[in-house]
Design a protein that fits this description.
Mean pLDDT: 78
Order of helices and strands: HHEHEEHEEEE
Strand order of the largest sheet: 3-2-7
Number of helices: 4
Radius of gyration: 76 Å
Low-confidence stretches: 1-8
CATH topology of the domain at 130-218: TolA/TonB C-terminal domain
Oligomer: single chain
């Protein structure tokens, strides 16, 4: 190797060493924060001046009004002529079907009920019922209704009695009134409670029910 080549190689190596030292110094500066302080100083330098805004543009002038134009009336348009159709459409008549007649059954009247059979005839009385004792004693002053005495009522009562087979009065109906309800009611009440009969008999001598007419005259008792 020549001397000049050795000298050149030594210069290159020295340059490489210097470049390497510079890189090491820059790396150390970045690590220790020198680069950060440098960036902060640059930012402070950038923020030290104000930017003035440009003035607003002048307002636009309004456009001039349009010139007056005369109003032209719209043209008169005549309506089209009415054309009549010589052949009008046929009229359709809707037919409604007639509903079938509704069958209404005629109510049937039930035949009248047959008449009740007639009551059997009363047995023929061979012997009429007879009074036992004197019934007049039951319609005296002792049994005179007090309300009739206070009202001064007296009169004749005719009662129709029904006499049973035991000789007792089973029913009483006033046929002739004394015009005093107290005297009429007292007559039937006393007849059912106290008047006795010997019952009527049929042809075979059996006791049968019968009727008896009892007249009673009520006379106010003397004081």
């Amino acid at each position: 190797m020549a001397y000049s080549d050795q000298k050149m190689s030594g210069g290159k190596i020295g340059a490489l060493v210097i470049v390497a030292l510079i890189h090491v110094a820059l790396g150390y500066a970045f690590v220790t924060g020198l680069a950060t302080n440098f960036v902060k100083k640059q930012v402070e330098k950038l923020n030290t001046f104000d930017v003035e805004e440009p003035p607003p543009p002048p307002p636009d002038e309004p456009p001039p009004p349009p010139p007056d134009t005369p109003m032209t009336p719209p043209p008169v348009v005549s309506p089209p002529p009415i054309v009549q159709n010589p052949n009008p459409p046929p009229v359709t008549v809707a037919t409604v079907p007639t509903p079938p007649p509704v069958y209404v059954p005629t109510p049937t009247v039930a035949p009248p009920a047959p008449p009740a059979p007639p009551a059997p005839p009363a047995p023929a009385v061979s012997k009429a019922a007879g009074l036992k004792g004197n019934p007049g004693q039951f319609f005296g002053a002792d049994n005179y209704p007090p309300s009739a005495i206070r009202a001064g009522e007296q009169g004749r009562v005719v009662a129709k009695l029904t006499v049973g087979t035991d000789g007792r009065v089973t029913d009483c109906t006033v046929t002739t009134s004394s015009n005093s309800s107290a005297l009429d009611q007292a007559t039937c009440r006393i007849a059912k409670a106290r008047v006795r009969f010997s019952p009527a008999q049929d042809a075979a001598g059996n006791p049968i029910a019968s009727s008896y007419t009892l007249p009673v005259r009520w006379v106010l008792p003397e004081n």
